[in-house]
Every structure is written in structure tokens, then in C-alpha cells.
């Protein structure tokens, strides 16, 4: 099967040294920083920002109104729903036993309206619940329920304070 040229919607701003592979579909009002890589079989919605030096390894799905800051690593088979914010230098993984054991690569599922703090790290096959928050520097080893907070290394899961129980306003 032959690959298809990327499809990019209206009003895109793609900065220098960014690479978008074939078989990628991107919606309207897309913006990148410099040096972004988006690999094959990735679908990206409308009003998405991908920051400088971010890598999206392919076979990923990114919803609408998503803000991914600089130096973020997103592995193969990741799902990011609408209104998600990912802070700088967040690192997600998809291989539970790197090189040692055959393992189906499973990236994270980040549900609608979740916020991910800077320099946080995630083990493979983690689900971040709707409206959940991850503190900067957290090391997430387990799923985070809807509207809960993950903080620390390894991350402890705590109820999100009432005043933070709302979805992100990204547009």
C-alpha cells in the first residue's frame, strides 16, 4: 500500500525544521514551534499547538484544542483527547519492558481536559482521567481517575481541590 501526502487544514503555521511524515492528517489552525517531528498514521484535530522540539512518534490520535508545549515526547499508540494541556519536557512511554520482553506498545490515553505538568514522566499504558491534573515533576506509575491530582515521585493520587474541578479553556 502506498502512503499519502500529509493533509493539513487551513491556517497552519509550521515553523522551520519541522517534519511531517506521510499518512498524517491535521485539522485547521494548527501551529508548531521549530524542529517538531510528527510521524506517520497520526491524526490531529483543530486548534492544536505543538511546541518546539516535540516528537510525536506516529500512530497517535490528538483531539481538538490541545496545547503541547516544547520538548515533549509522545510515543507510538498514544491517544490525547480534546482540551488537553501538556507542559514542557513531559515524557510518555509505551514499552513496559524495554528490549527485554516482547510487549505490545501501549502509549498513554489522556482524557478530555487533563493537564500535565512540566517534566513529568509516565510509564506505559497509563490512563489519565478526564479533568485530571499531574503536578510538575511527577512520575506517574498508575492510572489517574477523573478529576484527581497526581503529585510526587512516585506520584500519589489525591482528590483534586474543588476550585480546580473544571475543564481547560484552550482555543
Pick out its properties.
0% helix, 22 strands, globular, mainly beta, 8-stranded mixed beta sheet, 171 residues, 7-stranded parallel beta sheet, UDP N-Acetylglucosamine Acyltransferase, domain 1
Q: Which residue ranges are poorly predicted, with pLDDT under 50 across at least 5 consecutive positions?
A: none
Q: Describe the main β-sheet briefly.
A: 8 strands, mixed
Strand count: 22
Question: Radius of gyration, Cα only, in angstroms?
Answer: 16 Å
Q: What is the assigned CATH homologous superfamily?
A: Hexapeptide repeat proteins
* Main structural class: mainly beta
CATH names the topology as UDP N-Acetylglucosamine Acyltransferase, domain 1
Widest sheet: strand ordering: 4-7-10-13-16-19-21-22
What's the CATH class, please?
Mainly Beta
Helix content: under 10%
The structural domain count equals 1
Instruction: Tell me the number of helical segments per DSSP (H or I, 4 or more residues long).
Output: 0
The gist of it:
The chain has no helices and 22 strands.
Describe this structure in words.
The protein has one domain: 3 Solenoid (UDP N-Acetylglucosamine Acyltransferase, domain 1), CATH 2.160.10. It has strands spanning 7-8, 19-20, 25-26, 31-32, 37-38, 43-44, 49-50, 55-56, 61-62, 67-68, 73-74, 79-80, 85-86, 91-92, 109-110, 115-116, 121-122, 127-128, 133-134, 139-140, 148-151, 156-159. It starts with 6 loop residues before the first strand and ends in a 12-residue tail after the last strand. It has 171 residues and is an all-beta fold. The radius of gyration is 16 Å and the shape is globular.
Amino acid at each position: 500500500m502506498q502512503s499519502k501526502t500529509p493533509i493539513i487544514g487551513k491556517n497552519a503555521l509550521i515553523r522551520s525544521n519541522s517534519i511531517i511524515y506521510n499518512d498524517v492528517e491535521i485539522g485547521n489552525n494548527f501551529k508548531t514551534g521549530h524542529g517538531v517531528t510528527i510521524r506517520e498514521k497520526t491524526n490531529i484535530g483543530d486548534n492544536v499547538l505543538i511546541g518546539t522540539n516535540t516528537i510525536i512518534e506516529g500512530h497517535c490520535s490528538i483531539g481538538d484544542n490541545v496545547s503541547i508545549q516544547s520538548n515533549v515526547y509522545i510515543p507510538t499508540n498514544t491517544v490525547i483527547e480534546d482540551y488537553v494541556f501538556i507542559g514542557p519536557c513531559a515524557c510518555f512511554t509505551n514499552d513496559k519492558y524495554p528490549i527485554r520482553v516482547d510487549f505490545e506498545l501501549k502509549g498513554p490515553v489522556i482524557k478530555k481536559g487533563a493537564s500535565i505538568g512540566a517534566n513529568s514522566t509516565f510509564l506505559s499504558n497509563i490512563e489519565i482521567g478526564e479533568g485530571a491534573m499531574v503536578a510538575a515533576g511527577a512520575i506517574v506509575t498508575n492510572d489517574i481517575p477523573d478529576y484527581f491530582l497526581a503529585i510526587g515521585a512516585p506520584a500519589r493520587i489525591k482528590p483534586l481541590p474543588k476550585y480546580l474541578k473544571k475543564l481547560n479553556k484552550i482555543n
